[in-house]
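hey team, just a heads up i'm posting the complex here instead of the shared drive bc the drive is being weird again. everything in one block, sequence lines first with there labels, then the predicted structure for the whole assembly after. its two chains so it's a bit long, scroll down
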Amino acid sequence: MAVIVQKYGGTSVADVARIQNVARRVKAASDAGDQVAVVVSAMSGVTDQLVKWVREIAPHYDATEYDTVVATGEQVTVGLLALALQELGLKARSYLGWQVPVRTDAAHGKARIEGIDGGAIKALMASGVTPVIAGFQGIGPDGRVTTLGRGGSDTSAVALAAALNADRCDIYTDVDGVYTADPRIVAKARKLAKITYEEMLEMASQGAKVLQTRSVELGMKHRVPVQVLSSFNDLPGTLVVDEDVIVEQELVSGIAYNRDEAKITLIGVPDRPGIAASVFGPLADANVNVDMIVQNVSHDGRLTDMTFTVARPDLQRTMKTLDQAKNMLKFERILSDSNVAKISVIGVGMRSHAGVANTMFKALAEKGINIQVISTSEIKISVLIAEEYTELAVRALHSAYGLDND
Amino acid sequence: MAVIVQKYGGTSVADVARIQNVARRVKAASDAGDQVAVVVSAMSGVTDQLVKWVREIAPHYDATEYDTVVATGEQVTVGLLALALQELGLKARSYLGWQVPVRTDAAHGKARIEGIDGGAIKALMASGVTPVIAGFQGIGPDGRVTTLGRGGSDTSAVALAAALNADRCDIYTDVDGVYTADPRIVAKARKLAKITYEEMLEMASQGAKVLQTRSVELGMKHRVPVQVLSSFNDLPGTLVVDEDVIVEQELVSGIAYNRDEAKITLIGVPDRPGIAASVFGPLADANVNVDMIVQNVSHDGRLTDMTFTVARPDLQRTMKTLDQAKNMLKFERILSDSNVAKISVIGVGMRSHAGVANTMFKALAEKGINIQVISTSEIKISVLIAEEYTELAVRALHSAYGLDND
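-- predicted structure starts here --
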């Protein structure tokens, strides 16, 4: 008998019929002998409506009141799902964040879970009751309702699974797993049976937004196996696990892309110690997250060029910040380009294999795609290319690394 | 500087613009030097939608989960109104039932307030903050969300006013006060400046549903002056107060009617001690509320007829219950009639004046209206008539007691 946390996203509970569908899934698992705790999001569209009302009334809203309003979405679904489970003959009861309690820090609107007291819920499950827990919400040190930020229900589910020492956390969503590449771009993409936490983190941060990053980090920290699967079919999903659980590790697990980047180049920057800090310090202060950074050796030992990328919505703020710091930085010119995409090859297998990067460069060269910037980590190689080549590059790499489905 | 509780109903907070309108009203009172606590209902229509979802999933729903779902309506409005007040420059914060806390009994779906700890809110108001409290909800002894039943926000507001020892509780609604009769029927109806708690109770239970009965009882018990007024204009409303506050008491304050009654007559009931108990005992067990009861002296000392009224939705249940008890009750026949209306003349002044009833009987007789049943209390005379005469009777009585507006 396994202890399982099941999490259902907004599209899985979008209306009464779908909530009843979720209830049947929970009952099936329960009938099969598992102890199931369920975490749910708001019905899809509901959170957007609530946020819209908040913004109409207060464009620069008090995040505490925002949380009070927005947390109602999940409160509705836990009650409705508990009722649907009861209709199927299960004993079920709902829990709000403050009732569990799910303790968070005070960062309203984007709170972090500090601890979950799983004791009461564990005892309840052992007595044959199915708890239905509101995702996305908790209670802050001020005794008020907090929310975890968009996608936070994944994090709620994994944190609960850790608190319950669950055997697995199943995240039901509108995709049925993690693919070797975006199936909308690569027709031959394959669903992965397993993927490591580290790879999943790189996939997520590269734009393959299947799981919230924080939930993967939590799963990794507490070694909770996390399964991504669909609530609309009965196919097996993708299991996100520790590296040592995967017996036959592929060299490369997937190809990711991100069109949400903008490239900035500072031309004629003095080539002296501390210049990087003086560029990126002001950006950090302006809350701009810098991604790839490239600085070449200068030809003459005097001036160099520096290129880096930021999220596209941050571009304007970045340019303004650098312009204000121009006197101090003493660069000659500044260039920006939103017309770029980042393509990444991800796989823990590349740690122990040489030549992985070269396969990438060769495959892109064969298609005539120019590489603007390169950045590597232990399990990832990313390049920046012109955005129009995105699909071509992803498909070429998918073939080059032997990921194509036959 | 007065301490005022303002309560706004669903139509007053139906959308963003109306919530902003409410915020301006609160600010005006605050600017005028009053300390204001605000109690709000759900945006109109929201509660109905939530109830609909609950019923679709579980026709015989668990009231605990119902409460969890339905209480979200008020949670949304408190957050939005707190934000709207902040936008106007007020310090404001929302309170949910469990945060105040508003302690109730465990009767989910129709809970009664057992106590409100007003300390924190009082301190907050003294420090210049405007608290916005979710009406209709509380926390039960089980630590779960409770709701007070439909119209419960009025009760929340008056109970809070009592807990805060407030100078007045203003109930903003979609009518602008209490009238001598329903203005839809009597064009010459006048708005009452003042009315006693007792009269208001009789008016409310007679179908003039301006205030929830329980809220009037609470106001009477704690001597909280309750004002009924409109949030859509600036006219003075009707003040519900203790009898001794009203200097010039009218003989009759108003004419009420109720079309929600059904009449039942048991013919040939044995005229022996205990027969009433044996009729009404089973009805009480079946949760049927009996209103008017008439039993005449029997002609022969052996058999008598017994007439009483119940709420129309309870008629079927009543007939079934009596039918099942027929062997024990030994009545000859049973008759029922839904085609009746109860007309009431209400006024604390009639306590000390004779002839009030006779004016009623004479006025009805002049219009050729037959009286089927009569029932009286200290401050009320009610008669049952054929439903089709309702408007005629109300207008005739309004004139007969000199209530017509000139």
